[in-house]
Amino acid sequence: MAIEHGELPGLLDRLSEAFGPQDWWPAETAFEVLVGAVLTQNAAWRNVEQAIARLRARDWLSATAIVNAPADALRECIRPSGYYNVKAQRLTAACETWLELGGEAGLQAMETGAAREALLAVKGLGPESVDDVLLYGFNRPVFVVDAYTRRIFSRVGVVPPDIGYEPLQSAFHAALPRDARRFNEAHALIVALGKDYCRPRSPHCEWCPLQPACAYGGAGVQRS
Ligand code: SF4
């Protein structure tokens, strides 16, 4: 199946008309985006917020503090985010790399591709986590692909269901202007649709703004 990236802008426009501006500009520091990107893997965001609040309460919301924190206390601190043993290791590894790269200022000075490569080298940081950091932490024009993106646009019929992260990201890079605000807004619209309409089972196709264009839901048939 060919990738129909030329249809992506029109589909995103439909979502924008239906849902309005999402205005997802997080107030956190770039470092907090990194911490959130590690802790959010397989976790609900409200649990991640609890873990971040616990780090803040101990004054551990910095790379130096996390690297120097006793391992058992760090694990306990981030327990609300789940999988806290492995996440503590990943968080420490990410903080070590963060410090090696010169922290926020060092990464800010790096070219986007080089920063992406350096962060991808951290064990446990995958492309979605790294691109979260680059887009939301450093305002770089990097499209964040998630499970919602793959599900929605493969159901609509513009990309194959088994498309990999990089080809799907490239489709959005080819279809949209390389603009961080635009990518941020598009990602927020996709999350809004994926969370409330295009669910894994029993999607609400009948109310979906993409329904007229969707190969999966366009026939008006509800599938489970
Ligand atoms: S019409 Fe249904 S399957 Fe298609 S994008 Fe909307 S919710 Fe998903």
Write structural notes for this entry.
This protein has 224 residues and is an all-alpha fold. It folds into two domains: 5-22 and 144-213, Endonuclease Iii, domain 2, CATH 1.10.1670.10; 30-138, Endonuclease III, domain 1, CATH 1.10.340.30. 58% of the residues lie in helices and 0% in strands. The protein contains twelve helices and no strands. It has helices at 8-19, 30-39, 45-57, 63-68, 71-77, 84-100, 103-109, 112-120, 127-138, 147-156, 165-175, 180-196. Helix 2 packs across helix 3 (45-57), helix 2 (30-39) packs antiparallel against helix 9 and helix 5 (71-77) crosses helix 6. The chain binds iron/sulfur cluster. The site of iron/sulfur cluster has 14 residues, from helix 10. Iron/sulfur cluster binds at residues 152, 155-156, 197-198, 203-205, 208, 210-211, 214, 216-217.
* Beta-strand fraction estimate: under 5%
Named once each, the bound ligands are:
iron/sulfur cluster
**Major sheet:** none
What name does CATH use for the topology of the largest domain? Endonuclease III, domain 1
Please identify which CATH superfamily of the largest domain we are dealing with: Hypothetical protein, domain 2
CATH architecture of the largest domain: Orthogonal Bundle
Beginning-to-end CA distance, first to last residue: 24 Å
User: What radius of gyration results from the CA coordinates?
Assistant: 19 Å
